[in-house]
Amino acid sequence: MRAHVHEAHESLDGLIGGLETERDYLRYLAGMAAFRISAEAAVEARRFPSWLKDWRPVSTRLALEKDVETLRLSCPPVSALAPPETDSGLLGMLYTLEGSALGARLIAKRAKALGFDEDHGATHLAVQTAAPANWRVFLDLLEAAPVFDLDEAGAEASRLFRHAYDAMMLVDRAEEKVHG
Fold first, then answer.
1. Measured over all CA atoms, what is the biggest interatomic distance in the chain, rounded to whole angstroms?
2. Which CATH number is 133's domain given?
3. What letter would DSSP give residue 86?
4. Measured distance CA(78)–CA(89) in Å, rounded
5. Rounded distance, CA 179 to CA 80, Å?
């Protein structure tokens, strides 16, 4: 899976940048909120296969909405994402969403250095990093999946990364209109 999303992941990371200033973080938060809220809605709209048992991805939607409200940000409207059509597609989306918790640990440290924490503007990062075992459980379930098409999963994971990239670009375009 990593090979399928490498290029899209690198592009998104490059667009987000180092999160060195408060403005960088606010930009990141607006883009991620726009992206994750629509991405989580797409995943939640899909029936989960029984072999995933009770496992579910960590949802950051409510925490993101709180952070956006706390910091009085506006998020650009992003197009709705269609739910994945297949179990493999669902796994690709889940791989991307759940895997983002790994990078969220680093982002949480950077946010804290800028004055954002679980009580002020980074609630979503606290939620996202609070269940590190969820990623390991997901990987075990992925490994045991009775049906798995790597190309379908990779295509959905890449689609999710492109959607995140597009959300960040919408934030940048909105910023250009305000400050341009």
1. 52
2. 1.20.910.10
3. S
4. 21
5. 27
Q: Pick out the chain residues at pLDDT < 70.
A: 177-180
The reported pLDDT for the residue numbered 94 is 97
The residues, ordered by sequence, that sit 6+ positions from 147 with a Cβ below 8 Å of its Cβ are 87, 88
pTM above 0.90, yes or no: yes
| pLDDT tens per residue, range 5-14 | 999 999 999 9
Domain ranges, residue 100: 2-179
Return d(Cα 5, Cα 159) in angstroms, integer: 9
Q: Do the beta carbons of residue 16 and residue 167 sit within 8 Å? A: no
Please state the separation of Cα 54 from the chain's center in Å: 21
Which amino acid is located at 126 in the chain? A
Structure-block tokens of residue 68:
């956006």
Number of folded domains that form the chain: 1
Cα 35 to Cα 49, 71, 124, 134: the distances in Å are 24, 17, 13, 21
Distance from the Cα of residue 145 to its chain's centroid: 23
Distance set, CA 20 to CA 3, 69, 176 (Å): 28, 22, 20
**What pLDDT is recorded for position 180?**
46
pLDDT in tens, 69-83: 999 998 888 889 999
- 8 A C-beta contact, residue 33 and residue 64: yes
